[in-house]
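Protocol step 4 of 6.
Sequence for NanoRNase/pAp phosphatase (C-di-AMP/oligoRNAs hydrolase) (Desulfosalsimonas propionicica) entered exactly as in the expression construct, tag removed. Do not edit the line below.
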Amino acid sequence: MTLSTAQKLQHLMEQFSGSDHVLVLINADPDAIASAMALKRILWRRVTRLTLSNINTITRPDNMAMIRLLDVTLIHVTKITPNEFNKVVLLDSQPSHNESFREFKFNVIIDHHEPDSYDAPFRDVRPEYGATASIMTEYLKTAKIKPSDKLATALFHGIKTDTNNFERMATNADIQAFQFLFRHANIHLARRIEQVDLRMGFLDYFKQAISEKTVADDRICVHLGNVETPDICVLIADFFMRVNTVTWSIVSGLCEGRLIIILRNDGLRKDAGGVAAKQFGRFGTAGGHKSMARAEIPLETVRENLQNLEKDTVQQWILERINAVFDQCQKPKTDASP
Ligand SMILES: [Mn+2]
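Step 5 output, structure tokens:
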């Protein structure tokens, strides 16, 4: 039997009473944060207390900006006392998705990933949806709640992020939710959140990347040595692709016991995933799409193949492997010149 959104909303509200202390758990990303904000609004004045709690550590600058600019209060799961709460909600995730969820008994689950077998008194899992924020927007609309500009901005950003600006799977429901939110969201705020992808400390890596890059045949390559997060390699690889003549960008760094190699290209007749798999696959994990790819090689393996982990040595090794691909496909086989 398919329930209407109104019936589902009623069923959802029946799960709560005025004396409830509600814990909302999320694995914080824009979609999950926005969904939690929406549920908080739906249950406003309906329960005694509602606390939003994240199981992950939030490090992404855009997520941090979202929390700061939209006044979200999140308490890390290690800092809450579970038995202070008599109802637990899980949003944008399911119990089997993370170890941290194991100790909780969930009353309500709302998500858009493939359903697991966990049975909760209220469960609304719609894998055909691009974002949980779209489901939550339907609940808001059905409850006739006009979202504040901050809530609408959060949901708007959540849908945009999870559908990768509608490039990834999205349904009509996502588009309808998005259209509704567009009327209520603060687009300047949304744009600001979207724009933020750097931490102050990252700027030094950009300086290093710009001064140490090698450029050959429209390919930019740089090895950064130790980086605090692989995200830095991704940011710089994307940054180099913004130079109009660049067709390939290859940025690598050492992090968490691995050599991380990020490949980007302009998506024209090229296969970054294929290059990554062919040239680095036998050393670790490697693969990706036509225009984006990534390889991760354990440092022990790098040490077995290289004399040392000096920046120049690693850079040289990566360049040789990358250049081999281009030499094969671009130079005629009869060319015997050194
Ligand atoms: Mn999601």
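Step 6, annotate. Confidence is low (pLDDT under 50) at residues 331-338.
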